[in-house]
Amino acid sequence: MQNNDVLRQLRYTFNYSDDQMIVVFTNADAIYTREQISAWLKKDEDEAFQEMKDIELASFLNGFINLKRGKKDGPQFPPEKELNNNIIFRKLKIALNFKDIDILEVFDLVDLKVGKHELSALFRNPNQSQYRDCQDQFLRNFLYGLKMKFRPS
After folding, report:
1. I need a labelling partner for 150 at 20 to 30 A (CA). Which of 7, 104, 109, 136 fits?
2. Mean confidence (pLDDT) of the chain
3. Same-domain pairing of 65 and 100
4. How far is CA 136 from CA 1, 26, 58, 92, 142, in A?
């Protein structure tokens, strides 16, 4: 899934203004301008659109965790240079303080039946044999379910 799509979905779901988006980034000690954030949020067809790098989305997600869960003392966790859907999904789970049952409820909102074993495979260490890649459609359904949960209208 494109990083810009994830950012757009989260902004809409939690109804963040430009100022709030800047605050989320600064919670991870990342400084981006309103213009830069605006360029990431533009539609792909827009000439002002800029593709968001993994490290930039990781900074946003780390800031989202700090905003929702509180900032930890000491140095901040550095943003990942490379992201995949599993890492994005894990960071959202942490930020929202979701347990497996909460995630399954979100998937129920979009009529997607997921088993606990299938879900736990997404959060395993990639070196384990039970590990499974989180496919784009799976993450997209989760983001859509979050929108239904937090912004039902």
Report:
1. 136
2. 95
3. no
4. 5, 28, 17, 15, 10
Token readout for 88 is: 């994005």
Taking alpha carbons only, the member of 77, 142, 81, 65 closest to residue 109 is 142
C-beta separation of 100 from 116 below 8 A = yes
pLDDT > 90? residue 76 = no
pLDDT tens-place string over residues 110-124: 999 999 999 999 999
Rounded distance between C-alpha atoms, residue 97 and residue 101, angstroms:
11
| CA quadruple 75, 80, 81, 86: dihedral, nearest 10 | 180
Number of separate domains in the chain: 2
Q: How far apart are CA 147 and CA 126, in angstroms?
A: 28
pLDDT at 128 exceeding the cut of 90: yes
Is the CB of residue 146 less than 8 Å from the CB of residue 106?
A: yes
* Residues 50 and 14 reside in one and the same domain: yes
**Which of 69, 100, 127 is at the close of a domain?**
69
Q: Is the pTM of this model over 0.90?
A: yes
